[in-house]
Design a protein that fits this description.
alpha/beta; Arc Repressor Mutant, subunit A; globular; four-stranded antiparallel β-sheet; Rossmann fold; 241 residues; five-stranded parallel β-sheet
């Protein structure tokens, strides 16, 4: 019998946290609660979890600060952020900090469970032991110009170093690679990768692109592989410009 997946709920509203705990346990998950950011970080340093439901507005450290510290500490557990009002700036700041998905409050339980299952399924697809899964994405790795993107293990190796990627960074790179050579608008990236409305501020996309360039470009300020198309979006060129 397989071990239940472990979910950490980081939420300071006790009634909401207890409701999530009850429903996650009813779905077969093992769940635990922390009411603030400091407690969550301390617990994550002691115990492994398969995913985190992380509220943005917390006493002490905010959800943004928690996910930023996790990523800085090389902890890439999937994070589903719960945003106060679903404001675009909250969503994009969360993605910029390293979150993998978002859900605005108030939310329907069935939607939360679907988003959580989606995160866990994506994580499972990336694990080597699941390499034979029928649901596994067929793009497991991509090599270009002496660089290698390992989609299974969430890593990019370039310029003599290996960098761990978040699920969202992997999803963005995969989308760019699958559409290499084609000009991709910011609107398309928002809708297909972020699942965010087209009228949302696109600066988070630009910030992600800047970060990816630091991973793969010799000179990030003069990119050869991940090009900006002025006024439209981006274009990935595996052979360089």
């Amino acid at each position: 019998m397989s071990t239940a997946l472990r979910i950490l709920i980081v939420e300071d509203e006790a009634h909401l946290a207890q409701g999530l705990l009850f429903n996650l346990q009813a779905e077969g998950y093992e769940a635990a609660i922390e009411g603030d950011g400091e407690g969550a970080l301390a617990r994550l340093a002691r115990e492994p979890f398969d995913a985190i439901l992380l509220d943005v507005m917390l006493p002490g450290k905010s959800g943004f600060e928690v996910v930023t510290e996790l990523r800085a500490g090389q902890n890439y557990v999937p994070v589903l952020m719960l945003t106060a009002r679903g404001r675009p700036e909250d969503v994009l700041e969360g993605f910029g900090a390293g979150a993998d998905d978002y859900l605005p409050k108030p939310f329907d339980l069935s939607i939360l469970l679907a988003r959580l299952n989606g995160l866990l399924r994506r994580l499972k697809w990336h694990r080597p032991e699941d390499a034979n899964s029928d649901a596994k994405d067929d793009l497991r790795a991509f090599e270009f110009a002496g660089r290698r993107i390992d989609f299974e293990n969430l890593e990019v190796t370039a310029l003599g170093r290996t960098i761990r990627l978040t699920l969202m960074e992997v999803d963005l790179l995969r989308y760019l690679v699958r559409n290499q050579g084609r000009i991709i608008s910011r609107k398309e990236l928002l809708e297909q990768v972020w699942r965010v409305r087209e009228d949302t501020d696109t600066r988070a996309i630009d910030n992600f692109i800047v970060r990816l360039r630091r991973y793969i470009e010799d000179e990030p300020s003069e990119p050869r592989y991940l090009k900006t198309v002025r006024g439209i979006g981006y274009r990935f060129l595996a052979s360089g410009d």
